[in-house]
């Protein structure tokens, strides 16, 4: 080692020895140190405190993620509850109201994903409803016909009249090749 390096090394050791000396008793640092020594070590953290400390770096994402998860759980639970409530006598079905003295134009909407050359369509009424055309009641309870359907919505208007108050179901079916689609329209006839 060179003489200059020895001198620097000695000076560095001197400075490091001076750092180990406690600060004078009158300063803030000394007062704080004495208070900390009197208080002793802090009590151990509670279980919740340890969990919170473990999750703290990820906390910014944890609470929003928990909120999203809770919202998704509620959505799925409500979807399951709604899905289990199938059609039945205790389930309310939306119905179109029609006074018994009036004629209703029921607009059937057949939706096709692609254009169809020939669809066989059938509409069947219960005995309490009647088809109406050219100002008079028709004796038929079922109409069947074949027509092409364009891609998208195909609206078919049908005029009907109720004979007495009540809730009635109009059965609608369409057959395209060997595929058959069935649905119903609820019509409520009221006094008036």
Q: Short summary of the structure?
A:
The chain is built from 4 helices and 9 strands; from the N terminus they run H-H-H-H-E-E-E-E-E-E-E-E-E. With about 190 residues, the chain is α+β, with helices and mostly antiparallel strands.
The N- to C-terminal Cα distance equals 117 Å
State the CATH architecture of the largest domain.
Answer: Sandwich
How many structural domains are formed by the residues? 3
Major β-sheet, in short?
5 strands, mixed
Strand order, main sheet: write it out.
1-9-8-3-6
Tally of individual helices: 4
Describe this entry's structure for a reader.
The protein contains four helices and nine strands, in the order H-H-H-H-E-E-E-E-E-E-E-E-E. The protein has helices at 3-19, 28-39, 47-55, 59-84, and strands at 96-99, 103-112, 116-124, 129-133, 136-137, 142-149, 152-162, 166-176, 179-190. The termini are far apart. The chain folds into three domains: 3-39; 47-84; 96-190, Immunoglobulin-like (Sandwich). A hairpin with a 2-residue loop joins strand 4 (129-133) and strand 5 (136-137). The protein has 192 residues and is of the alpha+beta class. The model is unreliable at 84-94 (pLDDT under 50). A five-stranded mixed sheet has the order 1-9-8-3-6, with no helix packed on it. Strands 2-7-4-5 form a four-stranded antiparallel sheet, with no helix packed on it.
